[in-house]
Design goal:
about 120 residues, alpha+beta, Tetrahydropterin Synthase, Chain A
Length: about 120
């Protein structure tokens, strides 16, 4: 299996509903380091999974609507707990739409919320 990975980051604000979230129920900021890995069994005619620069651009564009935003105010997240896991899936879906015409394989989106904690979503593109 071949793989290629790129990294970016986003700064967001949000709050989480439910006693399980303790102080995170209050509005707070987060800086997520976002890793995306694409994997496939065959290289393309150029012997790459995808062009790394192209993937970096696609990721940046998929993240743009979230940058410096309060997720609580965005309609697509209305009444939703924007946990790290949930946001990873949201980014996966947004990026998958952008790359589906060019890439076939699996993708994992991992959000690092600190140096000790992360969450991810993985699926087929």
């Amino acid at each position: 299996m071949y793989g290629v990975q790129v990294r970016d980051h986003i700064m967001i604000a949000h709050s989480l509903r439910g006693a399980v979230f303790g102080p995170a129920q209050r509005l707070h900021g987060a800086t997520y380091v976002v890793d995306v890995e694409l994997r496939c069994t065959e290289l393309d005619e150029n012997n790459v999974v995808v062009d790394i620069g192209w993937l970096q651009d696609q990721l940046a564009q998929a993240l743009q609507p979230l940058r410096y935003r309060n997720l609580d105010e965005l309609p697509q997240f209305a009444k939703t707990n924007t946990t790290t896991e949930y946001v990873a899936r949201h980014i996966f879906d947004a990026l998958a739409q952008r790359i589906a015409q060019t890439f076939r394989g699996t993708m994992r989106v991992t959000l690092h919320e600190s140096h000790v904690a992360s969450a991810s979503y993985e699926g087929t593109v």
